[in-house]
Design goal:
Elements (H helix, E strand, L loop, with lengths): L4 H15 L2 H33 L3 H4 L12 H6 L16 H31 L6 H10 L5 H14 L6 H5 L6 H12 L4 H8 L4 H12 L1 H16 L3 H6 L8 H11 L4 H11 L1 H20 L6
Length: 305
């Protein structure tokens, strides 16, 4: 027996109309809210554990209790060398503020250089017509497929030949160029009408003037998004500083925490206290630029005609 098409269409219309009722939409919204809240709680749980552990005593860390029975803010004073360690009765050989300064200094320079080089390359690949432009861009983009570990030894050999091992320059220069940043800013610039360039060129503006006065202001959301991603990646980079840094004075946050864990690994509460202090710059950066970051990600391009 064949089912009449009219019956099938009638049932589909009933199902469609039922799923579009206000009650169903409200229920679906509540389910989505609880699902997102649950996932957000799972992602936030390690941070809560880190903060709770930072306020625990050495004995409480070994216990199964999640929340500290009594707060011990002296853990932060100990890692900042404002107070002697209660176990060793000496100041710990830690330079936490120096590590944070090194990480912020290196990350700031890497951000500055990446924004400059990526925006210039993106302008050349999107706003200037020249032979083989798209082929060169694809070849440049293909470098993203090369694993970073493969480039580690050649980069280190270059740093040795330039005699900048164990220097700030050796930490900064390899991160000054990025194919990802060029690709992202190129997508933003492709969304800007070419009529802007044509009008500026008719007024006698050079490519540098168009780049500085027109294109960069219109791609500001993309520049900020790239700057945030670059700062986060450079601040928490472990491998390259581990290879380049030889003296304690040049240690960045990941290297410092790694050495801290090696020297004071049994004092988990102090390690967590140091970690909480080290992520403060990242939290401040996100709070200040979160709206611009979301806008840059959602925009996904420049000005449309």
């Amino acid at each position: 027996m064949k089912i009449q098409p009219e019956i099938i269409n009638h049932k589909s219309e009933i199902t469609k109309s039922w799923t579009q009722t206000p009650e169903w939409q409200a229920t679906l919204t509540i389910i989505k809210f609880f699902a997102i809240t649950f996932l957000a709680g799972l992602m936030f749980l390690p941070f809560v554990w880190m903060i709770c552990t930072a306020f625990k005593s050495g004995i409480e860390v070994q216990s199964p209790h999640f929340w500290p029975k009594a707060l011990h803010p002296e853990n932060f004073s100990i890692v900042l060398r404002l107070q002697k360690d209660s176990i060793r009765h000496t100041f710990l050989n830690l330079h936490l503020l120096r590590w944070i300064f090194n990480s912020v200094f290196v990350a700031s320079w890497v951000v500055t250089l990446q924004v400059i080089t990526s925006s210039l390359a993106a302008y050349a690949f999107s706003r200037i017509t020249w032979p083989g432009r798209d082929k060169f861009f694809l070849a440049y983009l293909a470098t993203m497929m090369i694993p970073g570990l493969v480039l580690t030894i050649p980069q280190f050999q270059i740093m040795v030949s330039l005699d900048i091992v164990n220097t700030y320059r050796g930490l900064i220069i390899p991160g000054a160029f990025t194919a990802f940043g060029t690709f992202m800013l190129r997508q933003f610039m492709l969304g800007i009408p070419m009529s802007y360039n044509e009008a500026a060129e008719m007024d006698g503006a050079s490519h540098l003037q168009v780049y500085l006065d027109i294109i960069l202001p219109l791609t500001k959301p993309g520049l900020i998004t790239l700057a945030i991603f670059t700062f986060l990646g450079s601040y928490r980079n472990l491998l390259w500083p581990l290879i380049m840094v030889k003296t304690p004075a040049l240690r960045t946050v990941p290297i410092g925490l790694l050495s801290f864990q090696g020297d004071y690994g049994t004092q988990t509460e102090l390690l967590m206290a140091a970690t909480v202090i080290c992520i403060i710059p990242l939290i401040v950066l996100f709070i200040i630029l979160q709206k611009k970051l979301v806008r840059g990600i959602n925009l996904g391009g420049g000005v449309k005609e």
